[in-house]
Protein backbone atom coordinates (compact mmCIF):
# COMPACT_ATOMS: atom_id res chain seq x y z
CA UNK A 1 0.00 0.00 0.00
CA UNK A 2 1.17 3.50 -0.78
CA UNK A 3 1.43 6.41 1.58
CA UNK A 4 2.15 10.14 1.81
CA UNK A 5 4.89 11.80 3.88
CA UNK A 6 6.54 15.21 4.16
CA UNK A 7 9.59 16.84 5.69
CA UNK A 8 10.02 20.57 6.33
CA UNK A 9 13.51 22.03 6.30
CA UNK A 10 14.27 25.62 7.34
CA UNK A 11 16.95 26.54 4.80
CA UNK A 12 17.61 29.94 6.40
CA UNK A 13 18.66 28.37 9.68
CA UNK A 14 19.81 24.98 8.42
CA UNK A 15 17.52 22.90 10.61
CA UNK A 16 14.19 21.06 10.57
CA UNK A 17 10.99 23.11 10.62
CA UNK A 18 9.23 21.97 13.77
CA UNK A 19 5.69 22.58 14.99
CA UNK A 20 4.39 23.59 11.55
CA UNK A 21 0.68 23.06 10.99
CA UNK A 22 -0.17 21.34 7.69
CA UNK A 23 -3.67 20.97 6.31
CA UNK A 24 -4.22 18.00 3.99
CA UNK A 25 -6.77 18.74 1.30
CA UNK A 26 -8.31 16.46 -1.29
CA UNK A 27 -9.24 18.23 -4.54
CA UNK A 28 -12.26 17.05 -6.53
CA UNK A 29 -12.87 19.40 -9.45
CA UNK A 30 -13.54 22.80 -7.90
CA UNK A 31 -14.24 21.28 -4.48
CA UNK A 32 -11.54 21.33 -1.79
CA UNK A 33 -12.04 19.13 1.28
CA UNK A 34 -9.80 19.32 4.34
CA UNK A 35 -9.35 15.68 5.29
CA UNK A 36 -6.70 15.97 7.98
CA UNK A 37 -4.51 18.42 9.90
CA UNK A 38 -1.06 17.41 11.13
CA UNK A 39 1.91 19.12 12.80
CA UNK A 40 5.60 18.51 12.20
CA UNK A 41 7.73 17.07 15.00
CA UNK A 42 11.24 18.11 16.18
CA UNK A 43 12.74 16.56 13.03
CA UNK A 44 10.38 18.49 10.70
CA UNK A 45 8.48 15.30 9.87
CA UNK A 46 5.15 13.89 10.96
CA UNK A 47 5.18 11.03 13.46
CA UNK A 48 3.42 8.72 11.01
CA UNK A 49 2.43 8.81 7.33
CA UNK A 50 0.06 11.67 6.57
CA UNK A 51 -2.19 9.39 4.53
CA UNK A 52 -2.00 5.65 3.97
CA UNK A 53 -4.12 2.62 3.19
CA UNK A 54 -7.72 3.30 2.16
CA UNK A 55 -7.28 7.03 2.94
CA UNK A 56 -4.60 7.40 0.23
CA UNK A 57 -6.24 7.25 -3.19
CA UNK A 58 -5.47 8.40 -6.72
CA UNK A 59 -6.31 12.08 -7.27
CA UNK A 60 -5.27 15.64 -6.57
CA UNK A 61 -4.15 16.89 -3.17
CA UNK A 62 -2.80 19.98 -1.47
CA UNK A 63 -0.56 20.21 1.53
CA UNK A 64 -1.10 23.67 3.02
CA UNK A 65 1.89 24.64 5.17
CA UNK A 66 1.35 27.41 7.74
CA UNK A 67 4.93 28.63 7.37
CA UNK A 68 4.24 32.23 8.44
CA UNK A 69 3.31 31.12 11.96
CA UNK A 70 6.56 29.16 12.13
CA UNK A 71 8.65 32.08 10.81
CA UNK A 72 7.06 34.45 13.34
CA UNK A 73 7.82 32.00 16.17
CA UNK A 74 11.44 31.81 14.97
CA UNK A 75 11.73 35.59 15.30
CA UNK A 76 12.10 36.41 11.61
CA UNK A 77 11.13 40.06 11.30
CA UNK A 78 9.09 40.98 8.24
CA UNK A 79 6.60 43.54 7.05
CA UNK A 80 2.98 42.41 7.23
CA UNK A 81 1.56 40.90 5.24
CA UNK A 82 4.52 38.58 4.98
CA UNK A 83 5.93 37.65 1.60
CA UNK A 84 5.33 33.98 2.54
CA UNK A 85 2.66 33.00 5.00
CA UNK A 86 0.48 30.06 3.95
CA UNK A 87 2.10 27.87 1.29
CA UNK A 88 -0.17 25.50 -0.70
CA UNK A 89 1.54 22.68 -2.59
CA UNK A 90 -0.82 21.02 -5.06
CA UNK A 91 0.18 17.68 -6.52
CA UNK A 92 -1.31 14.64 -8.19
CA UNK A 93 -1.20 11.02 -7.13
CA UNK A 94 -1.39 8.73 -10.16
CA UNK A 95 -0.49 5.49 -8.38
CA UNK A 96 -1.75 5.17 -4.81
CA UNK A 97 0.35 2.03 -4.28
CA UNK A 98 3.55 4.12 -4.27
CA UNK A 99 5.24 6.28 -1.63
CA UNK A 100 4.79 10.00 -2.29
CA UNK A 101 7.18 12.17 -0.29
CA UNK A 102 6.45 15.91 -0.67
CA UNK A 103 9.04 17.94 1.28
CA UNK A 104 9.10 21.70 1.77
CA UNK A 105 12.35 23.67 1.92
CA UNK A 106 11.46 27.12 3.27
CA UNK A 107 13.01 30.45 4.21
CA UNK A 108 11.35 33.83 4.80
CA UNK A 109 11.52 34.72 1.08
CA UNK A 110 11.57 31.45 -0.82
CA UNK A 111 10.49 27.83 -0.88
CA UNK A 112 10.93 24.78 -3.04
CA UNK A 113 9.63 21.24 -3.22
CA UNK A 114 10.12 18.04 -5.15
CA UNK A 115 8.87 14.48 -5.18
CA UNK A 116 11.18 12.50 -2.97
CA UNK A 117 11.12 8.87 -1.98
UniProtKB/TrEMBL annotation:
Gene3D superfamilies: Transthyretin/hydroxyisourate hydrolase domain. One of its GO terms (biological process) is purine nucleobase metabolic process. Its EC number is 3.5.2.17. One of its GO terms (molecular function) is hydroxyisourate hydrolase activity. It comes from the Bacteria. It is an enzyme of class 3 (hydrolase). The keyword Hydrolase applies. It catalyses: 5-hydroxyisourate + H2O = 5-hydroxy-2-oxo-4-ureido-2,5-dihydro-1H-imidazole-5-carboxylate + H(+). Residues 4-116 form the Transthyretin/hydroxyisourate hydrolase domain. InterPro entries: Hydroxyisourate_hydrolase (IPR014306), Thyroxine_BS (IPR023418), Transthyretin/HIU_hydrolase_d (IPR023416), Transthyretin/HIU_hydrolase_sf (IPR036817), Transthyretin_CS (IPR023419). Catalyzes the hydrolysis of 5-hydroxyisourate (HIU) to 2-oxo-4-hydroxy-4-carboxy-5-ureidoimidazoline (OHCU). Homotetramer. This is 5-hydroxyisourate hydrolase. It comes from Vreelandella subglaciescola.
Amino acid sequence: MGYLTTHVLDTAQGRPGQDIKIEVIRINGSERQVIKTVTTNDDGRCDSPILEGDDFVTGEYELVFHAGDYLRAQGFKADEPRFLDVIPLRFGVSDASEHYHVPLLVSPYSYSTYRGS
